Protein 1
Amino acid sequence: MGAYDMSRYTRILTAALFASSALSGAAQAQVTTAPADAETTPPEAAGTEIIVTGTRTAGQQAAQSATPIQLISQDAITRVAQPNLNQALTQLVPSFQAQTQGTDMASFSLSARLRGLSPNHTLVMVNGKRRHGNSILQVINGAFGGSAAPSIDLIPPDIVKRIEVLQDGAAAQYGSDAIAGVINIILKSDTEGSTLRLNTGQYYDGEGTTYSASGNFATKVGESGFLDIALFHRRNAVTTIGDGQLQVVNVDGSAVTLPAAQAAFQPIYNNLASTRGTANINGGQPASSLTLAFYNFGYDFGGVEFYSFGDVSYRQGDALQGYRVPTRVCRNPVTNTPLSPGTNPANCFANTGQTGLVPHIEVKQDEFSVTNGLRGDLAGWNFDLAATYAEDAAKVYTTKSVNASLFGFTGFSPTDFYDGRFDFTQFTTTLDLRKEFEVGFAEPLNVAFGGEYRKETYRIGEGDAGSLYIEGGQSFPGYSATDAGRYARNAKAVYIDLATKPVAGLTLDLAGRYEHYSDFGDTTIGKITSRYDFSDAIAVRATASTGFRAPSLPEAGYSATNVGPTSAVLQLAPNSAAAAGAGFSSLRPEKSTNFSMGIVLRPIPRLVITLDAYYIKIRDRIVSSGTIDGQLFTGNNTAPVRLTNSFINGLSQFQLVQNAITASGKQLDPFVLQSGSLSIQTYTNGIDTRTKGWELAVRYPIDLSFGKLDLSAGANYNLTKVTRNGLGALFGIQARQIIERASPIFKGNVNALFTSGRFAANLRANYYSETISYVRPNAGSITTGGSIPPINREFYEASVKPAVIIDAELAYDVTDFINLAVGANNLFNKIPEIPPFVPDYQPGSTFYRNGRSPYINNGGTLNAPYTFGPYGTNGGYYYARATIKF
């Protein structure tokens, strides 16, 4: 074990011992009872739940909030099939969208976002304290690209009391990241009771079997304390898509025809085609296992409460990568050099000459976080002093693979490679003070102020020698010396918040915040919030605020090479020489302006309706440049297309990409250099965006003679436009489309929960409007007289059509202690569309064969659906759950 690992686990042990001593040292007094959960609140009291998010005042009810806030109860979370907070929120909150699947390492740490903005624009808190970021950066070029946001999946559902989703800009209240809103996860603080949940399910096609076991255990500590502990383990199998790889099988099911030099492989390809040997071998979710423990502790010493909460987790994931054909990893035994494509199966690595190769990427991620604090009263002031330390580390491996160049030159290659690691640490300490003053208004003036200090570090560690030899292992090379590095910064902030009711019915809240970042300078931001209640039945509310977000350390420092079977994308660090040579500059902070206004209606008892409109402008927004292509793959036996038209500064796209590769000092897969697609991308400022929309929430619980029916509905309309492009050709129309249309413009849900005695039934429908993506067809079809794409003569518009996804669950209390439930997500097995063929494709076509894709997105897998839809490619999922209370 290295010195870094030893110090890491020493810190974990120290934190655990500190928490243990606090627990054992806690003694006597009285336990305070927390407010009732939303699901146990009588219908008459709906909206009376006490909230802590979006306000610095004490005792505010949800129905009185001057900002739009949605509460998700523990019961609602339980009734979502997968034991995963990301999935729960995306099904329950219309403006929340969870990532359904990713590629490479993005598969292991799926992200989520509010109001169609970046995941980095949403602040995640636990018990009102900032949650640490992720060491894994979402490098994919899509709606979630650039995310290093906290992984909500690392919080076990069983320890959650409720989730408060503030759907309003709150950077002036809580700091950087809160441009789109805040997700505050409130933990249980029970003094008794234990729950055990067993959950299993799988997709309709039999893949992706999931098992989970979780438990929540609560106990009283002394006379005035509580301890809640949750243990959680989840394991899921892989899912796949497609009926075959087009490099082996043609659209009509026949085998591709190989050139004469590769004739020895033709029987192998024929067999793979006839036996569907390349069907369902990759393309879905990875296999993964997650084990974690979370605790929440508090002890009231009389006037001062000590509290502590934290977690430790370990996740291991295994993702199937792109298929390498049988001729790919071969050598010439006479000259001792790589030979791709090969000519003799006997000269290929292991049995890859017979079967081809599907490499794997594996990630081993361990994380911990601990927060300790004191709160109470001092000289008439309420105070809260807290400190949090967290670490997130991920080791990356390429397995079941081969280094083709090493094998070609030596006749030997390992199959497993250590590619490197990421480490992210965060230390945060906060002090919050609050006091009410009588100033002659209808209610006292609430004065709150405080400060925050935060230190963050991010490190990329180098891979082993095998992962760095020329192209490294097939599918993912190791992180090189030019990728590796350590980055650090600190941030200091002070804030003040004044809230009162000058006259009856009118609420005013003014907040201001000053922040200084060691790497990006300082900023001052503010927020004004108001609400006026005309009566108990109607109120209006409005907010205006400014915001600021500094680039995350992973955004600013990450670089890597992403390699597919026929492609390589160089991810350039924004501050690198390669990025500068391509015309990009180092990252700058984003600045935002938010406006919202809404109405709250309670026209009849129990019916609550809220409607809020919003406008968000972000200047110098950090986005992916999108892939800038220099060379495009056309087929197995044809030369690539080099893009040589003038692009920027007198350079063609091909020259720009070649220059960036040279400046990076990296060696790429020789086969891809010779025949595949070559691209670069990076993160950059340079665009401004405008997001506007509205959110509707309705709830109406009804008492029936034979039970209770709780009806709720929500809707979100969200439209984002790029209002300024300061990057010119470096930010193309494909990258622009991702910002504007990668999410549904409209999403709505309706939920009905019926309970009668021991029986409960839950029915939920989510509607997603159309999602589009600009996709490029096979380059050979354009350059050889095929149909010309209608968008910029490069792209087709791919569309995932509007869809309604139905979820259903039936549950029954077998005894007072045992509940059994069965249900289904995506009940009718809705899957995104399979891409259409290009217009000039004809059955029996001789052009679209032998690796040339006829699909408008140049997809290399037969009958593979689009992967950018909001509900994923896995289809329907059925499950069973047992809950035991004791």
Note: Residues 1-45 have pLDDT under 50 and may be disordered.
Protein 2
Amino acid sequence: MLKKIAIVLIAAGALLLAAGAIFLATFDVNHYKPQAIEWMKAHKQRTLAIDGPIGLSVFPQLAVTLSDVRLSEKLDAQGRAEPFAQIQRARLALQIMPLLARRIEVGKVEAQGVQLTYLRDAQGVRNIDDLLAGPAGAQAPATPSPAAPASAPASAPMHFDVRGVSLHNVTLRVRDEQSRVDGVATLARLETGRLASGVESPVSFDMALDFKAPAVRGTLTGRTRLQIDLDPSAGKDRADKKEKQAREERLTLTNADLTFRGDTPSLKNAQLSLKGTLALDAARSAMAAHQLQATVSGQVAGLLLDGAELSVAQLDYEPGAQKLQLQTLALDFKARQGGNPLRARLNWPQLQVQGESLGGSALSGDFELGGSTPVTGKFTSSAPAGNFTQLRIPRFKLTLDGGAKGSGEITTDIGVQPAGARVTLDKLQGSVKAQAAGQLQAFSVAGAASYTGGAAQAVQWDLRGVWGGDPYSTSGNAVLAGTVPTIHAKFELARFNTQQLMPVAQAAASSEKNKAPAGVSPAPEAIKSGATKQATTDAIDLSPATAFKGSIDASVGRLTVRNIVFESARVSLRGDGKRLDIPAFAAKVWQGTLSGSGAVVPASKSIALKGAAEGVRIEQALKDLSGRDHVSGTGRVVVDVRSAGATLAQIRSGLDGKAHVQLRDGAIKGINLAKSLREAKAALTLRKDNVHKARQEEKTDFSEISASFDIAQGVAHSKDLDGKSPFLRLAGEGQIDIGRGTIDYLAKATLTDTAQGQDAAELAALRGVQVPVKLSGPLEAMEYKVQWSAVTASVAKEALKGKVGDALKDKLGLGKKDEAAPAAPAGAPAQPQSPKDKLRDKLKGLLR
């Protein structure tokens, strides 16, 4: 009976095997493509496209081959969606039988032409959340199931074993608003050997990075031997728990050789390389390194790094155990700045930290700065102190030697907080003597400063000292993270000369450039030929106005800028990274006061200025600002102007706004109206206008003068010139072309009183007569024309029309026929005269 039963079972088993074999031989997974596509659309609201064949084998390994597969993002309300994933070709084979023994054994993983997109918004919602979620409407239980008590032991971890990985042309697009990451990483090639816990495998890869945030663009290549330690027996043997736990989740790169070439936010044209052995333990945030060497080349903030090297013989860092061990740290910093070589070397033989215990050796080093002013120096310290959370390097001393150009010494206590990436400088004391502006300047500093790295990248300082014999102080903070630093700072200086910051040769050249020969103006032909066009064509760079966000307030007791001396100078700056506002500036200058506000907007290349000068000596101001002094006097100047342009010429030609000038006790230089009026006799006799070149030694004095200007497109229009003096009154209208530096103005002078001297009688006859004076030409070589022809015509016209009144007729003798006629010679008949002849005779007599 048993024999028959056995025969039946064997036959049934054979039948099942045969049926299974027939099923596997005839099963075609491609028949189920429509169902998979429909399921994805119905349950995940995504579009799945499978254009290539699907290969599937079940025994002895589960192998899947895919080609030309595309999956979209979740469909929007209009049924549209961006691509989420695309696979040109992929193959994965998983062994079946090892799964029964909780082992994952995978054949070689191969893929090429893969494109993936990862998105996360500011609220943390990801574009993969719906794919990771369970069936629609399913919810995780709020409390553990009674069948699975909390005290139940965790299941044993599974082993993994991958024969190898081969990936080609894999692209990952990332836009993470929470982490502020936006860019594309393209893995051109990744090849590995066998990947299994405790097995060392060769790994090589080539990839490209193109990120907007952070701004990283370049290539990354690597060669190493990779070992992953995920020991499944860790934690089972409690007697050996610590030793085994040390091997959990440990990743080791042996003989690593990693190289990056490209740009980073702070380093341009970078070449970064890392060589050595590096071990990382993610679970404990621990790191260990052996014979590690990092090399950096590139350009940062005007500094050209030329293969700066940092090497460490041994490093063990384990924050959880408060452990830090450092053996033979060496830095060889090589760079060039402005073509001048810079080199610094540092050596730190040993540092050991375990909790509250700290020991180690002092650090030392030296540096060299080449160029026209070479400087050498060295630095030393005492042995470090502190603990794991706070490392102190006391009595750090830096000694500078610039030969005859200067020397100095700086001491401080350095504090380091590794957890907060914070470095402090306490008890900072220093004194330096350096040559500047042709003389040896003494500089001293005292105070404290700190730097916090990481995401903050913040600097704080509170410093004071003496510069060139005058005290100064400054305090503030700056956040350097981001594209534009945020700065809040205050500066107070007793005295400052901008030439203190210039090299000797440059300061001397600047000083000579600011000296103009007395009384010498450029020749007219030079002006017309454009020999002085540098001032009108120089480009203006407004980009520094976007260099910071925040506020800067500065005050200087005595500020010298290009030989202009400002007393009690104060200025406030406010920036937002897009524009610079000057809410207020004030100073005593030119024997008066200056105050106002302004703004600079680089995006539109525009500037604006509002200001008032009270009680200033206008002659001195004009000399300092433009090298000209056409007007002298004391008074008030108010401006409210704005403009835009990329060059000084465009700024001048685009000026718009208003200005007002009111002066007293001064003179208009280049023209002497009193002298010109005394030449009236000859001019009226010849009925010819006199044209004169403006001359520095000539001037017209006034007791007060004022004018307002409407400025449009670089041309200042004025209609209300009002000048007064004991000798004359002055009115007029016209325009000054600021962009071209020319004037076209008609002044009208009226004699109000008689000057003393031999011409007094003649000038008295011109009282009340308006004399037009035309000013024209370039401001550097202005011409003025006294229009005597208009005076003669006006007087004749008024006399003939009778509009001058009886008083003028009596004065000319036109109203007294008997007395006006000259006596006829004896025996000669009397000749009657016409009114025209009488007028001509009287005008000649008036100026005889």
Note: The chain has 16 helices and 41 strands.
